[in-house]
Amino acid sequence: MELEFLDTETGDTSKGEVPDRSEAAGAQLSRAYGYDSFRPGQLEAIDAILDGRDLIAVMPTGSGKSVCYQLPAMRPGTLTIVVSPLRALMRDQVGALRKRGVPAALIDSGVTPKRRRDIYGLAADGGLRILYVAPERLFSDDFAEFARTVRVDLIAVDEAHCVLQWGSDFRPSYMRIGGFIAGLPTRPVVAAFTATATKRQVPEIASALGLDRPAMIGTGFDRPNIRFDSIELRPAAREKFIVGWARTHEGGGIVYCNAIRRCDELAERLRESGVDAEAFYAPLADGEKARIQDGFLAGSPRVICATTAFGMGVDKPDVRWVVNDGPCESLEAFYQEAGRAGRDGRAARSVMIWSGGDFLDWKRRIADNAGSALDDPGGRARARDAAFDRLSAMSRYCETGSCLRHTLLDYFGDGSGDGSACCENCGNCTYAADCDPDAHSQGRRRKKTAEAVPYEPYEPEEADGAIVSFVRARQGILGHGCGRVKTIRSLRGETGEDVSDRGLDSADGYGALADMDERDIADRIAALVAAGILAYGRYHALIDREEEKE
């Protein structure tokens, strides 16, 4: 099997071969998990680990990263240490492994000294396959002594982006993992996993962890089953929108809030409206957190109003929607949260609610807190600047009139770079009436407008009649407009969402410009908008201005 390897000193990549163990690994996968086949990237990661190669894997939320290190860890006579910042995840995975007959244990702050000694002894005697620890645990005196007396075959570092000093998830102890590994009597294989690292950040993570020419696995960031929407809505109108959304959309959902008080307020308002909802945040007692989390996994509460403390590592595949009550501080954080929807592969929704004031609040927080965990003034300054850059990217996502999906993918280095690309499954490429804030509240949303073009006297061209005719006909059929890109594709006779099944392929103008270049059609649309003949309405939907007046 051919894989790509990273030179951590130069940043260059090269191809290399590892043995294909698909038959044996597939048999183990079936026995241990009951799965018939691997998900994308899993077999490649497993083959690299079994070949004794370090690994860095960038795999989206819900892609099955845990299988990549758990399956190699099941080999008799081996010991794997999994480093994770997520206590809930570790607890759940240890429980699941034990049910499969795999000897696994967890050491965290809730484990007594006697129990820790028992676990160390079990591992030393070969009776343990997988040991989960938080990164801070690695540097305790008792664990350091234990690690010097046993052979560790694999160290799996989950949420590896936590090594990056710019991130809100930065954990200073992650920066010391490389030193911990270097101090072991025998160097183990090291595998790092993350869902939110850009191509530029991968070498930074690999270097920080001291990876040795790691294999690189990237399965792509796209989650095509998730529809993305961005809605500008003033804070006073959000509550009504969120309540209306939760009442009209079935299935489990998560509302992410940027303040604990807001979680409590929204959960109470939802309950008053007949929605089974609970609030979740870090200061809750561990028992209360476990109750709410386990209940959500079982179906009650149906909706969780939470801070970022909820969700990482929570494996609920049938979350149907995620609503953000305000923007995140970065696209990395947002994509983590949005990615908790639709992990079963079925249709799901991500709705970002935002206003300009939200970004002012974030700027103040960044100015006060970014880089505060760092001692070096220069490091703090760099962390602060990087945080502002990521906030700007979040702002561009919220405000763009282009495809939301491609905006995300381009940010993570997984896109085409084509600003005209259309996914036909986001609020800027199609219109969705259920995302109209006027249906839920009296809040006002600033209309997105096309990019400004220099004023020139309008001079009609032959294509203009077909464009106006199609926009007018489509508006009459659907009752609303659609995005510019979808309009262009329809004029060229291409098919897609809501075309043949809604009768759009018989509308005046459909396919009339099949021989015309997409950029030329876009220029004519811009000229028609500038002349006031067409306009952009809600969600960057292209509409006929005369029809709108009627």
Describe this structure in words.
The protein is 39% helix and 15% strand. Helix 2 packs parallel to helix 3 (65-73). It is built from 19 helices and 18 strands. Strand 1 and strand 2 (13-17) form a beta hairpin. It is an alpha/beta fold and 550 residues long. It folds into 3 domains: 2-218, P-loop containing nucleotide triphosphate hydrolases (Rossmann fold); 226-411, Rossmann fold; 447-549, Orthogonal Bundle (Arc Repressor Mutant, subunit A), CATH 1.10.10. The protein is globular. Strands 2-1-9-3-8-7-4-6-5 form a 9-stranded mixed sheet, with helices on both faces. It has helices spanning 22-33, 42-50, 65-73, 87-99, 113-124, 141-149, 177-182, 201-209, 235-248, 260-272, 286-298, 331-338, 356-369, 377-399, 404-411, 462-478, 484-491, 518-530, 545-549, and strands at residues 2-6, 13-17, 55-58, 80-83, 104-107, 130-133, 154-157, 189-194, 215-218, 226-232, 252-257, 277-280, 303-306, 319-325, 348-354, 482-483, 534-536, 541-544. The model is unreliable at 442-455 (pLDDT under 50).
